Description:
elongated
Amino acid sequence: xxxxxxxxxxxxxxxxxxxxxxxxxxxxxxxxxxxxxxxxxxxxxxxxxxxxxxxxxxxxxxxxxxxxxxxxxxxxxxxxxxxxxxxxxxxxxxxxxxxxxxxxxxxxxxxxxxxxxxxxxxxxxxxxxxxxxxxxxxxxxxxxxxxxxxxxxxxxxxxxxxxxxxxxxxxxxxxxxxxxxxxxxxxxxxxxxxxxxxxxxxxxxxxxxxxxxxxxxxxxxxxxxxxxxxxxxxxxxxxxxxxxxxxxxxxxxxxxxxxxxxxxxxxxxxxxxxxxxxxxxxxxxxxxxxxxxxxxxxxxxxxxxx
Length: 306
C-alpha cells in the first residue's frame, strides 16, 4: 500500500507549535522554555555580509526619518517650557502685577504636572500603541496652551496655564524614549537618546536669539507687549511643527509603509534577537491584561509541587 503523503506545516505553524515547551523536573518544578524562533523567510538566507549591508541601509533610513523631527519637537518642548524666564525680562511681572514669590511659583508649578503625568502617559501610550498620533497630538495641545499663556490677565490664569502645560509636555520625553526603543537595539539606543537630549542644549543656545528678535520687533504691535507675542509666536510654531509630525512620525516597524518588506522583517527580527520580543503594533496581545493572564496561567512555574 502506498504511503499517504503528509502535509508539510508552514513556518508559522511550526513556530506556533514549538514556541513554548513545558517541562517538569525531578523535584516537581514546572518550567517554560522558549524554543529558538526562525528568522522571517525574506532574511533567512542572507549571508552575514548581506545582512550587515541591509541593516546599515535600513538604519540610515530610520535615522533620517525619525531623528530630525524628534529633535526638533524636543527643542520646541524645551522652548515652550522655559520661555517664561525671557517673558519676565520684557514686562510679564509688571503687567500682571506679580510678586517675586508668585513668579517663582509659576515657574515651579509646571514641574508638578510634569512629574505627575510621566508614568501614566507612557502607560496610556503603551495601551493605545499609536505614537504617530499620540506624540504630535500632545504637541498640538501644549502649543495651544503655550500660545494661550500670552492672553492671561492675572496670576491665577498664569499658574493654571503653566500647570496644564507641564501636564501635557510630560508626555513627550518619556514617550519618545519608549518610541525609540521600538526601533533601535540596546546598542544603538544610547547614541540616539543622547542625540535627542541634545535638543535641550540647542534650545538653550538659540532661545536667547529668538527671544531678542521677537521682543525687539513685536513690542507694542496690535497693542500687545512683547512678552505676549513671545508666547503666541512660539506656541504657533509648535502647532505648525506638530501638524507636520503627523505625516512624518511612524508607529512601529511592522506597520511602516516606507520600509520594504525585507527591511520591515529585519527591523522586527533584530529587536527580537536583542531583547527576546519584537515591536508592538497595537494594544492587542501585549496589553497589561494579557500579561496578567499569562502570569496566572503559568502560576505553577513559580511554585513547587507537593
